[in-house]
Amino acid sequence: MAGIAGNLLAVRERDEMLSGWTWLFQRITAFFLILVLGVHFWILHYQNPGEILVYADAARRLQTALFLTVDSLLLAFGLFHALNGLHNVLEDFNVRSRSITFVLLLVGVGLFIMGIYSLWQFV
Predict the structure, then answer these.
(1) Which stretches are transmembrane (predicted)?
(2) What's the rounded Cα separation, in Å, for the pair 77 and 26?
């Protein structure tokens, strides 16, 4: 009986430690989302005011390493932040399951791969 209780306690400690890391990374991604979105908006809307943005210009920009990096970071940080936030909301409503965490992880990885594939079509 003590072995089962010890294992449950170890699982709980591991879950709490993981929860602490996801909490910290949620705040870090929020900071970088604000920073990178600010850079993104400044470059697209304020660097050349009055410029009409057309598809060819957007495609040309996505061929540069800077825009590819910025958009890839936005994708990664945004996906983590959104899906971890959704996971936290579900936990607040006592919807706790490892299968939900696994599904959210699969959705995140799938959307990230699709997004990166889409961005690399311009290279």
Answers:
(1) 24-44, 65-87, 99-120
(2) 9
For 20-47, what is each residue's pLDDT tens digit? 888 899 999 999 999 988 888 888 788 8
pLDDT tens per residue, range 51-100: 787 889 888 988 999 889 989 999 999 999 999 999 999 988 988 788 89
DSSP 94: T
Q: Please give the Cα distance from 6 to 115 (Å, whole number).
A: 43
* Amino acid at site 3: G
Q: Residue 68 contacts by C-beta under 8 Å, 6 or more apart in sequence?
A: 62, 119, 120, 122, 123
Cα separation, 89 vs 83, in Å, equals 10
Alpha helices per DSSP H over the chain: 2-41, 55-61, 65-92, 98-120
